[in-house]
Design goal:
By secondary structure, the chain is an alpha/beta fold. It has helices spanning about 15-25, 25-40, 75-85, 95, 120-130, 150-160, 170-175; strands spanning about 45-50, 65-70, 85-90, 105-110, 135-145, 180-190, 200-205. The chain has one domain: Vaccinia Virus protein VP39 (Rossmann fold, 3-Layer(aba) Sandwich), CATH 3.40.50.150. The chain has a seven-stranded mixed sheet. About 35% of the residues are buried. Bound molecules: S-adenosylmethionine.
Length: about 210
Amino acid sequence: MAQRISGAYRLITMPSIYKGLMFSLGADRAISRYVDEVLQPKAGMKVLDVGCGPASVLAYLPSVDYTGIDLNEKHIAYAREVYGDRGRFIVGNVAHDVKQEERAFDLINVSGVLHHLGDDEASTLFRSLKRLLKDNGKLVTLDPVWLSGQRTVARLFNWLDSGMNIRTPEDYLGLLNGLGFDVQTRVFSDLLRIPYDHVVMIARNGRPAGVAD
Ligand SMILES: C[S@@+](CC[C@H](N)C(=O)[O-])C[C@H]1O[C@@H](n2cnc3c(N)ncnc32)[C@H](O)[C@@H]1O
Protein backbone atom coordinates (compact mmCIF):
# COMPACT_ATOMS: atom_id res chain seq x y z
CA MET A 1 0.00 0.00 0.00
CA ALA A 2 1.32 3.46 -0.86
CA GLN A 3 0.53 5.46 2.22
CA ARG A 4 2.22 7.54 4.89
CA ILE A 5 2.42 5.57 8.12
CA SER A 6 5.09 7.32 10.17
CA GLY A 7 4.73 10.02 12.82
CA ALA A 8 1.23 11.46 13.25
CA TYR A 9 -0.06 9.30 10.37
CA ARG A 10 0.44 6.18 12.50
CA LEU A 11 -2.29 7.45 14.82
CA ILE A 12 -5.02 7.00 12.22
CA THR A 13 -4.32 3.29 12.04
CA MET A 14 -5.82 3.21 15.56
CA PRO A 15 -9.60 2.69 15.36
CA SER A 16 -10.72 5.11 18.08
CA ILE A 17 -8.50 7.91 16.74
CA TYR A 18 -9.53 7.25 13.13
CA LYS A 19 -13.23 7.28 14.10
CA GLY A 20 -12.82 10.40 16.26
CA LEU A 21 -11.08 12.27 13.43
CA MET A 22 -13.69 11.20 10.87
CA PHE A 23 -16.60 12.18 13.06
CA SER A 24 -15.09 15.56 13.91
CA LEU A 25 -14.99 16.22 10.14
CA GLY A 26 -18.70 15.37 9.82
CA ALA A 27 -18.45 11.74 8.77
CA ASP A 28 -21.76 10.78 10.38
CA ARG A 29 -23.75 12.93 7.97
CA ALA A 30 -21.42 12.02 5.11
CA ILE A 31 -21.87 8.28 5.60
CA SER A 32 -25.61 8.65 5.94
CA ARG A 33 -25.81 10.53 2.61
CA TYR A 34 -23.43 8.09 0.92
CA VAL A 35 -25.60 5.16 2.02
CA ASP A 36 -28.89 6.80 0.99
CA GLU A 37 -27.78 8.34 -2.29
CA VAL A 38 -25.13 5.95 -3.54
CA LEU A 39 -25.00 2.54 -1.88
CA GLN A 40 -28.80 2.27 -1.67
CA PRO A 41 -28.69 -1.09 0.12
CA LYS A 42 -31.78 -3.20 0.53
CA ALA A 43 -32.61 -5.45 3.47
CA GLY A 44 -31.39 -8.99 2.94
CA MET A 45 -28.60 -8.07 0.50
CA LYS A 46 -25.25 -9.76 0.82
CA VAL A 47 -22.75 -6.92 1.27
CA LEU A 48 -18.95 -6.97 1.18
CA ASP A 49 -17.12 -3.96 2.67
CA VAL A 50 -13.53 -3.97 1.42
CA GLY A 51 -11.02 -2.10 3.61
CA CYS A 52 -13.88 -1.67 6.06
CA GLY A 53 -11.74 -0.03 8.76
CA PRO A 54 -13.83 0.05 12.00
CA ALA A 55 -16.92 -0.74 9.88
CA SER A 56 -18.51 2.66 10.51
CA VAL A 57 -20.88 2.19 7.57
CA LEU A 58 -22.56 -0.80 9.21
CA ALA A 59 -24.45 1.44 11.65
CA TYR A 60 -26.23 3.02 8.65
CA LEU A 61 -27.20 -0.18 6.80
CA PRO A 62 -30.53 -1.98 7.04
CA SER A 63 -30.55 -5.63 8.01
CA VAL A 64 -28.05 -7.04 5.51
CA ASP A 65 -25.71 -10.02 5.44
CA TYR A 66 -22.52 -8.00 6.04
CA THR A 67 -18.89 -9.05 5.62
CA GLY A 68 -16.15 -6.52 6.42
CA ILE A 69 -12.53 -7.24 5.57
CA ASP A 70 -9.46 -5.20 6.43
CA LEU A 71 -5.72 -5.76 6.60
CA ASN A 72 -5.57 -3.89 9.90
CA GLU A 73 -6.35 -6.29 12.74
CA LYS A 74 -6.98 -3.44 15.20
CA HIS A 75 -9.83 -2.13 13.05
CA ILE A 76 -11.37 -5.60 12.79
CA ALA A 77 -11.09 -6.22 16.54
CA TYR A 78 -12.83 -2.88 17.14
CA ALA A 79 -15.62 -3.72 14.65
CA ARG A 80 -16.18 -7.11 16.29
CA GLU A 81 -16.44 -5.46 19.69
CA VAL A 82 -18.92 -2.82 18.52
CA TYR A 83 -21.09 -4.89 16.18
CA GLY A 84 -20.74 -8.45 17.48
CA ASP A 85 -22.80 -10.80 15.35
CA ARG A 86 -24.31 -8.07 13.15
CA GLY A 87 -21.63 -8.94 10.65
CA ARG A 88 -18.70 -11.16 9.78
CA PHE A 89 -15.35 -9.42 10.22
CA ILE A 90 -12.20 -10.77 8.58
CA VAL A 91 -8.58 -9.74 8.94
CA GLY A 92 -7.05 -10.17 5.53
CA ASN A 93 -6.59 -9.15 1.94
CA VAL A 94 -9.70 -9.48 -0.14
CA ALA A 95 -7.68 -10.75 -3.09
CA HIS A 96 -6.83 -13.92 -1.09
CA ASP A 97 -9.20 -14.34 1.83
CA VAL A 98 -12.74 -14.37 0.42
CA LYS A 99 -12.01 -15.77 -3.01
CA GLN A 100 -14.10 -18.90 -2.48
CA GLU A 101 -17.25 -16.77 -2.45
CA GLU A 102 -17.58 -16.35 -6.21
CA ARG A 103 -20.59 -14.38 -7.45
CA ALA A 104 -21.91 -14.20 -3.90
CA PHE A 105 -22.31 -10.46 -3.25
CA ASP A 106 -25.09 -8.08 -4.29
CA LEU A 107 -23.15 -5.00 -3.21
CA ILE A 108 -19.44 -4.34 -2.70
CA ASN A 109 -18.33 -1.16 -0.96
CA VAL A 110 -14.74 0.08 -1.39
CA SER A 111 -14.71 3.40 0.42
CA GLY A 112 -11.53 5.28 1.20
CA VAL A 113 -9.29 2.52 -0.17
CA LEU A 114 -8.22 3.23 -3.77
CA HIS A 115 -6.25 6.33 -2.90
CA HIS A 116 -3.99 4.12 -0.77
CA LEU A 117 -3.29 1.72 -3.63
CA GLY A 118 -0.98 1.96 -6.63
CA ASP A 119 -2.41 1.16 -10.06
CA ASP A 120 -1.24 -2.46 -10.08
CA GLU A 121 -2.63 -3.16 -6.59
CA ALA A 122 -5.93 -1.51 -7.50
CA SER A 123 -6.22 -3.54 -10.73
CA THR A 124 -5.54 -6.77 -8.84
CA LEU A 125 -8.17 -5.77 -6.29
CA PHE A 126 -10.81 -5.07 -8.93
CA ARG A 127 -10.11 -8.31 -10.79
CA SER A 128 -10.76 -10.24 -7.57
CA LEU A 129 -13.86 -8.20 -6.72
CA LYS A 130 -15.29 -8.80 -10.19
CA ARG A 131 -15.30 -12.53 -9.43
CA LEU A 132 -17.08 -12.03 -6.09
CA LEU A 133 -19.90 -9.85 -7.44
CA LYS A 134 -23.21 -11.33 -8.57
CA ASP A 135 -24.02 -10.93 -12.26
CA ASN A 136 -26.34 -8.00 -11.60
CA GLY A 137 -24.40 -6.72 -8.58
CA LYS A 138 -23.06 -3.25 -7.85
CA LEU A 139 -19.57 -2.19 -6.80
CA VAL A 140 -19.15 1.29 -5.33
CA THR A 141 -16.00 3.27 -4.57
CA LEU A 142 -15.50 6.57 -2.73
CA ASP A 143 -12.23 8.50 -2.60
CA PRO A 144 -10.74 11.99 -2.45
CA VAL A 145 -10.09 13.41 -5.89
CA TRP A 146 -8.05 16.01 -7.78
CA LEU A 147 -10.25 18.37 -9.78
CA SER A 148 -9.44 21.25 -12.07
CA GLY A 149 -10.30 24.57 -10.43
CA GLN A 150 -10.43 22.82 -7.03
CA ARG A 151 -10.65 24.92 -3.87
CA THR A 152 -7.22 25.57 -2.38
CA VAL A 153 -8.15 24.16 1.01
CA ALA A 154 -9.45 20.96 -0.60
CA ARG A 155 -6.15 20.63 -2.46
CA LEU A 156 -4.29 21.15 0.79
CA PHE A 157 -6.24 18.34 2.49
CA ASN A 158 -5.40 16.07 -0.45
CA TRP A 159 -1.69 16.85 -0.06
CA LEU A 160 -1.92 15.99 3.66
CA ASP A 161 -3.80 12.71 3.14
CA SER A 162 -2.02 9.55 4.22
CA GLY A 163 -3.00 7.93 0.91
CA MET A 164 -0.46 8.72 -1.79
CA ASN A 165 -2.56 7.81 -4.81
CA ILE A 166 -5.31 10.40 -4.98
CA ARG A 167 -6.32 10.57 -8.66
CA THR A 168 -8.44 12.58 -11.08
CA PRO A 169 -11.90 11.13 -11.90
CA GLU A 170 -10.51 9.93 -15.25
CA ASP A 171 -7.61 8.12 -13.62
CA TYR A 172 -9.91 6.38 -11.10
CA LEU A 173 -12.13 5.33 -14.01
CA GLY A 174 -9.10 3.96 -15.84
CA LEU A 175 -8.64 1.40 -13.02
CA LEU A 176 -11.89 -0.29 -14.08
CA ASN A 177 -11.07 -0.34 -17.80
CA GLY A 178 -11.49 -3.65 -19.54
CA LEU A 179 -13.33 -5.35 -16.68
CA GLY A 180 -16.75 -5.20 -18.29
CA PHE A 181 -18.41 -2.89 -15.78
CA ASP A 182 -20.92 -0.24 -16.71
CA VAL A 183 -19.54 2.70 -14.68
CA GLN A 184 -20.95 6.06 -13.63
CA THR A 185 -19.09 8.69 -11.60
CA ARG A 186 -20.37 11.42 -9.34
CA VAL A 187 -18.42 14.17 -7.57
CA PHE A 188 -19.48 15.32 -4.09
CA SER A 189 -18.07 18.60 -2.77
CA ASP A 190 -20.12 18.89 0.40
CA LEU A 191 -19.98 15.56 2.23
CA LEU A 192 -17.73 16.82 5.03
CA ARG A 193 -17.72 19.97 7.17
CA ILE A 194 -14.46 21.07 5.60
CA PRO A 195 -13.82 21.98 1.93
CA TYR A 196 -13.21 18.51 0.50
CA ASP A 197 -14.01 16.76 -2.77
CA HIS A 198 -14.90 13.09 -3.18
CA VAL A 199 -15.52 11.06 -6.30
CA VAL A 200 -17.80 8.06 -6.33
CA MET A 201 -17.75 5.32 -8.97
CA ILE A 202 -20.81 3.13 -9.31
CA ALA A 203 -19.90 0.05 -11.34
CA ARG A 204 -22.59 -2.37 -12.39
CA ASN A 205 -21.78 -5.88 -13.36
CA GLY A 206 -24.24 -5.99 -16.25
CA ARG A 207 -27.79 -7.10 -15.80
CA PRO A 208 -30.51 -8.61 -17.93
CA ALA A 209 -32.31 -6.03 -20.09
CA GLY A 210 -35.33 -4.48 -18.42
CA VAL A 211 -34.25 -5.20 -14.86
CA ALA A 212 -34.35 -2.00 -12.78
CA ASP A 213 -32.77 -1.25 -9.39
C1 LIG B 1 -8.81 4.99 4.95
S1 LIG B 1 -9.27 3.40 5.50
C2 LIG B 1 -11.00 3.40 5.04
C3 LIG B 1 -11.86 2.71 6.07
C4 LIG B 1 -13.36 2.72 5.78
N1 LIG B 1 -13.68 2.01 4.55
C5 LIG B 1 -13.91 4.12 5.73
O1 LIG B 1 -14.39 4.53 4.67
O2 LIG B 1 -13.87 4.79 6.76
C6 LIG B 1 -8.57 2.27 4.27
C7 LIG B 1 -8.50 0.83 4.78
O3 LIG B 1 -8.30 -0.07 3.67
C8 LIG B 1 -7.58 -1.20 4.16
N2 LIG B 1 -7.11 -1.96 2.97
C9 LIG B 1 -6.36 -1.51 1.94
N3 LIG B 1 -6.20 -2.48 1.00
C10 LIG B 1 -6.87 -3.58 1.41
C11 LIG B 1 -7.08 -4.91 0.88
N4 LIG B 1 -6.54 -5.30 -0.28
N5 LIG B 1 -7.85 -5.79 1.59
C12 LIG B 1 -8.37 -5.39 2.78
N6 LIG B 1 -8.20 -4.16 3.34
C13 LIG B 1 -7.47 -3.26 2.67
C14 LIG B 1 -6.56 -0.56 5.09
O4 LIG B 1 -6.07 -1.45 6.06
C15 LIG B 1 -7.37 0.59 5.74
O5 LIG B 1 -7.92 0.25 7.00
